[in-house]
Amino acid sequence: xxxxxxxxxxxxxxxxxxxxxxxxxxxxxxxxxxxxxxxxxxxxxxxxxxxxxxxxxxxxxxxxxxxxxxxxxxxxxxxxxxxxxxxxxxxxxxxxxxxxxxxxxxxxxxxxxxxxxxxxxxxxxxxxxxxxxxxxxxxxxxxxxxxxxxxxxxxxxxxxxxxxxxxxxxxxxxxxxxxxxxxxxxxxxxxxxxxxxxxxxxxxxxxxxxxxxxxxxxxxxxxxxxxxxxxxxxxxxxxxxxxxxxxxxxxxxxxxxxxxx
Length: 261
What we know:
By secondary structure, the protein is α/β, with parallel strands linked by helices. About 35% of the residues lie in helices and about 25% in strands. Strand 6 and strand 7 (about 205-210) form a beta hairpin. The radius of gyration is 18 Å and the shape is globular. The relative contact order is 0.14.
């Protein structure tokens, strides 16, 4: 089998860019990413919202779990956790930590677009935080992921998802040019969607992220069969919910946490 450096694009996992695949295999990069979000107000806000909607006992499937930045706290609260991620090093670290604390966490190495390995209607809750859904390239691939989530959930289950806001780039001088180019490319090029970003991240060039409009995100969730119960617009630094959301909230929000059934 071709290695990651020489693997042709058609051999990449569905919805996964080359840079994301390389990022997922670098242990210190995965650890640095999780360390960035393992403490502070951003995670506290996430945990506060999850505490409101995820009640033990029950099974929560953490899609894009990393090394356990949310799976470990949820397991400590009494929830059983199934951690799914593309990164083997991250899951190895998660397994080490959960075993040390004797926590009910199982790990699955999988591409989020290809979750046929998981049975249907088994999860009480699913979460996909830190804009993991935006790391999937291609709208049809993102929809396939969301359909898998709906299939995995029990009929009474709850899905909590986070995504970044495209329009906030209007307020960032260094990002306005990207926003204009992105909108134009989304019209004229079939291989690029409006909202697709490529950037350097922790030394890995050309990392991919799709940033949404609010209507696009809610439309995709509806297309996958979800009913939206709550939308929490976030401040840019994710320290708290956006203040005065009625005042151009669709533009000012740094992103959203959406709760679905």
